[in-house]
């Protein structure tokens, strides 16, 4: 922890340094398709600026011998209401190869936006993308089976959006009480 | 032969005893098995199972109804009698109703030939064993009728599994019993007991007097577990897989009928195994010199005591296994039947035949 | 012989034979049957529904349907303040409330960057390891029921009762504790806790052996689970499996060791891995065995914690609890090793509000269950039950 390098007046912990090293490899391969590295100590992440490259980046991250991000711990949908965007945050790490871990953000338009699906890269993403779709309403291009997962099939609206208004009745049952 | 005559003398004397115009003796001869069935199967078989499982599992079991919960089963039956008798709309009503009846009747008809001591027997058929095996197998029809008639997928699975299992296990079971029949040279249940009674008590039992008898004994015991759908062969009603198997849709008294039929057949197979291999009502105690323990513990009442005790012992073993072992899978069950039990049953059959010729 | 026509549905074939006779041949009619397993089914451990397409006893495909127990955990999180979320985390994995509370509190503490008293850390580890044992006891017991062995279940519940009594004694509740708070604990443990806990440890040690004899070494049990539902290590990682499921596939991965938190780095325990001599790596038996070993390891951890725990002098369990929880703007993903695997919390704070902007719970069962469709393909129905049981799902956590 003590031998971390200085950046913007903060000392980077060792874990963040490892993430930074992994990020540099990705940056070297994809250039401007990925944004700057955010070296916060709680969850270092970078953003995929060009969402159409997301599957390529994901495959590279999983398969490159220097990265081997073979384990997707979590995929969370997020509503960025102020930027008029929806997004996903993927927490990736490497089991059995390297100690590094990193988070990736991918964003899309708020209305009718879509993000390429990485269910073919990490099976974990399959159900998590379904959950993100269920809760936020962004579609995942190329997802094998994009249906609602936690809400009923015929539910209207996407509950975790910040401006979500619950429907009045559901099959004749009064919903808000 | 002399024993057989004395046997009939007891029976005759008892049945000739009339109270005025009322044939009291005859009623007693026929009623003892019936009273036993009513008492055992309708109440204390179930109670025993619950208490034994509770003992094994570090619990108390039923304690509230009556002293030590003794009246629990009666209360349960009363409850089941009051329940609504539901027949699902989509069910085949005739099959749905007839299924539990066939099972119940099939299970309890077999008690006709089960001798409760030298004096008490419904009918001493000369093909008693054959009749018992055949009539117990009638349950298959009831199971299939109720499973198909329920119009429920789980019930159908349970019924198909059950029929496959019972029909398959009939084969090793029957061959094993055939070994017993060869040893005794008879199919009459009374004669089995007569052939195994004598002054040396348990030494006359086939299990101890015949060096081969343990093999058919074991085979029949395992097969009988499968025939009565008891664990580890309870796959037709495997509650964690098939909800409740072929009686998923049943409620109230129809459900109780399945339950009672199961306990009835449990005692039936225990009775058969103790008659064929363990002397039935014959006392296990030997005469030691002048101390005639065997003679003292023989007679109509003692006979009833011994056979019921032996039956209970095997029921206890069945319960013991049920509460200890996990359940087999369908294919493992069939493997055990066709590739293990049936070949060994044939081996036992040949060995017994050789022994009976050259002993 | 010439085939004139064929009807697909009932496999009927119309054949003209060499002597010009037309024969209609009808094969045995077989159809796939759709079998809806659950939401009310004894072996789905709650309200999971599996839509099985079956060919006789063989499951062609089983599609899980979730959401019957969805209680909008994440929506609630955006409506209540940070400490108010703790009771909701209990209700996620209701068999391991302490572990989930700890995972959540650690996430918020990471954002707040506060120092936790050492005694608090030890108590947290003790209660969560106790809860891990309790949870594994349920998992092993119900697995026995799934395979038709009823007695081990009651033995497990008898022993679990002792743990619940201990936890009730320190927190006041048997399942939904709300004991671990952000920055501390609601109360210190009672005065005699150490004594009673070590009594429990001595009582429980022989019981694990008993359980092993009754279930794990049972011939029928081994026959039912060995070689069933095999998950290779790389596929398991790709599915995001964690906890005993991943270790059952032979991957040496335990967050207590690989992403150490709390006082786990100071404790000596081994990561439970299946023995390839006893089971096939990655099958149902391996997963069961891992859980059985983990119980013993948890006992070891508890014993060490009892020795190392700092004294009660001047201790206040609430000393580090912040008056108002308002983390600075940022996000965190923090996780802990729960009995069922990795439970993580992804929390976004805007720095202004006392409520999180977004709180996502990464549920271990949800991820583990997602492999169900692949695992169940071509299995027998009894094996399907064995596989569901070995995944050890808690629907409260799957659906949140």
Task: Please tell me about this protein's structure.
The complex is a heterotrimer of chains A (177), B (359) and C (400). Chain A has a single domain, classed as NADH:ubiquinone oxidoreductase Nqo5 subunit (Beta Polymerase, domain 2, 2-Layer Sandwich). Chain A is built from 3 helices and 11 strands. Chain A has helices at 14-30, 54-63, 124-136, and strands at 6-7, 10-11, 34-38, 45-48, 71-80, 85-93, 101-109, 114-116, 139-141, 169-170, 173-174. In chain A, a hairpin with a 7-residue loop joins strand 6 (85-93) and strand 7. The longest helix of chain A is centred in the N-terminal third of the chain and has 17 residues, at 14-30. Chain B has one domain (88-358). In chain B, helix 2 (24-56) crosses helix 3 (72-82) and helix 10 (214-227) packs antiparallel against helix 12 (252-278). Chain B is globular. Chain B starts with a helix and ends with a helix. Residues 1-5 of chain B have low confidence and may be disordered. Chain C has helices at residues 73-77, 82-90, 97-112, 118-146, 151-171, 193-216, 219-225, 233-238, 244-248, 255-258, 284-308, 364-369, 372-376, 381-391, 395-399, and strands spanning 2-7, 12-16, 22-26, 33-37, 49-55, 58-65, 180-181, 184-185, 330-338, 341-349, 358-362. In chain C, strand 2 and strand 3 (22-26) form a beta hairpin. Chains A and C meet through strand 5 and helix 3 of A and helix 8, strand 9, strand 10 and strand 11 of C.
């Amino acid at each position: 922890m003590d031998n971390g390098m200085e950046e913007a007046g903060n000392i980077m912990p060792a874990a963040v340094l490892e993430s930074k090293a992994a990020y540099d490899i990705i940056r070297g391969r994809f250039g401007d398709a990925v944004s700057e590295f955010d070296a916060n100590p709680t969850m270092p992440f970078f953003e995929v600026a060009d969402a159409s490259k997301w599957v390529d980046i994901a495959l590279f991250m999983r398969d490159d011998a220097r990265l081997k991000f073979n384990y997707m711990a979590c995929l969370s949908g997020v509503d960025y209401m102020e930027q008029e965007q929806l997004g996903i945050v993927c927490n990736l790490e490497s089991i059995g190869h390297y100690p590094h871990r990193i988070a990736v953000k991918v964003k899309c338009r708020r209305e009718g936006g879509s993000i390429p699906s990485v269910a073919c890269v990490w099976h974990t993403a399959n159900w998590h993308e379904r959950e993100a779709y269920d809760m936020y309403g962004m579609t995942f291009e190329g997802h094998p089976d994009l249906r609602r997962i936690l809400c009923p099939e015929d539910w209207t609206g996407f509950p975790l959006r910040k401006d979500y208004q619950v429907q009045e009745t559901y099959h004749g049952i009064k919903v808000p009480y | 032969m002399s024993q057989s005559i004395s046997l009939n003398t007891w029976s005759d004397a008892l049945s000739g005893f009339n109270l005025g115009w009322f044939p009291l003796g005859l009623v007693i001869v026929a009623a003892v098995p019936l009273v036993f069935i009513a008492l055992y199967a309708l109440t204390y078989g179930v109670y025993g199972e619950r208490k034994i499982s509770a003992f094994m599992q570090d619990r108390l079991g039923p304690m509230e109804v009556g002293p030590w919960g003794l009246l629990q089963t009666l209360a349960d039956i009363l409850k089941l009698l009051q329940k609504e008798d539901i027949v699902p709309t989509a069910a085949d009503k005739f099959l749905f109703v007839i299924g539990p009846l066939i099972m119940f009747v099939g299970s309890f008809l077999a008690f006709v030939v089960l001798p409760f001591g030298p004096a008490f027997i419904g009918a001493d058929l000369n093909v008693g064993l054959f009749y018992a095996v055949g009539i117990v197998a009638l349950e298959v029809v009831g199971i299939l009728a109720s499973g198909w008639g329920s119009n429920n997928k789980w019930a159908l699975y349970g019924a198909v599994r059950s029929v496959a299992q019972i029909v398959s296990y009939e084969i090793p079971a029957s061959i094993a019993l055939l070994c017993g029949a060869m040893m005794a040279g008879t199919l009459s249940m009374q004669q089995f007991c007569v052939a195994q009674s004598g002054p040396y008590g348990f030494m006359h039992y086939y299990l101890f007097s015949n060096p081969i008898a343990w093999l058919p004994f074991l085979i029949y015991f395992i097969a009988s577990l499968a025939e009565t759908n008891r664990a580890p062969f309870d796959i037709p009603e495997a509650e964690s897989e098939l909800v409740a198997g072929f009686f998923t849709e049943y409620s109230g008294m129809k459900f109780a009928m399945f339950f009672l039929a199961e306990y009835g057949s449990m005692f039936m197979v225990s009775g058969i195994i103790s008659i064929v291999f363990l002397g039935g009502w014959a006392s296990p105690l030997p005469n030691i010199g002048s101390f005639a323990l065997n003679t003292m513990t023989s007679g109509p009442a003692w006979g009833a005591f011994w056979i019921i005790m032996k039956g209970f012992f095997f029921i206890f073993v069945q319960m013991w296994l049920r509460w200890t072992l996990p359940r087999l899978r369908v294919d493992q069950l069939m493997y055990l039947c066709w590739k293990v039990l049936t070949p060994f049953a044939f081996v036992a059959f040949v060995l017994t035949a050789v022994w009976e010729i050259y002993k | 012989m010439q085939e004139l026509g064929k009807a697909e549905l009932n496999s009927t074939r119309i054949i003209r034979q060499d002597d010009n006779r037309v024969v209609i041949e009808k094969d045995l009619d077989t159809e796939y049957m759709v079998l809806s397993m659950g939401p009310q089914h004894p072996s789905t451990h709650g309200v999971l529904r599996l839509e099985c397409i079956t060919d006789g006893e063989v499951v062609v495909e089983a599609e899980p349907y979730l959401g019957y127990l969805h209680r909008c955990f994440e929506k609630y999180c955006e409506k209540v303040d940070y400490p108010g979320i703790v009771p909701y985390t209990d209700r996620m994995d209701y068999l391991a409330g302490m572990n989930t509370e700890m995972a959540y509190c650690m996430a918020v503490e990471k954002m707040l960057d506060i120092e936790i008293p050492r005694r608090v850390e030890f108590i947290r580890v003790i209660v969560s390891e106790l809860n891990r044992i309790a949870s594994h006891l349920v998992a092993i017991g119900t697995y026995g029921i799934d395979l038709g062995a009823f007695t081990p279940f009651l033995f497990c519940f008898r022993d679990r009762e002792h743990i619940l009594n201990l936890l009730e004694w320190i927190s006041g509740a048997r399942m939904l504790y709300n004991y671990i708070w952000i920055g501390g604990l609601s109360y210190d443990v009672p005065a005699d806790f150490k004594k009673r806990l070590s009594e429990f440890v001595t009582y429980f040690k022989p019981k694990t052996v008993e359980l092993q004899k009754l279930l794990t070494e049972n011939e029928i049990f081994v026959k039912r689970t060995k070689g069933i539902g095999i998950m290779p290590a790389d596929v398991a990682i790709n599915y995001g499996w964690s906890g005993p499921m991943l270790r059952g596939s032979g991957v040496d991965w335990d967050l207590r060791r690989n992403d150490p938190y709390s006082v786990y780095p100071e404790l000596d325990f081994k990561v439970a891995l299946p023995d390839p001599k006893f089971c096939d790596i990655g099958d149902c038996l391996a997963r069961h065995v891992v859980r059985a070993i983990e119980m013993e390891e948890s006992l070891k951890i508890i014993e060490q914690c009892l020795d190392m725990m700092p004294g009660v002098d001047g201790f206040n369990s609430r000393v580090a609890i912040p008056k108002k929880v308002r983390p600075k703007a940022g996000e965190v993903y923090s996780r802990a090793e729960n009995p069922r695997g990795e439970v993580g919390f992804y929390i976004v704070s805007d720095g202004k509000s006392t409520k999180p902007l977004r709180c996502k719970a990464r549920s271990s069962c949800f991820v583990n269950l997602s492999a169900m469709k692949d695992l169940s393909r071509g299995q027998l129905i009894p094996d399907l039950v064995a596989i569901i049981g070995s995944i050890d799902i808690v629907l409260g956590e799957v659906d949140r």
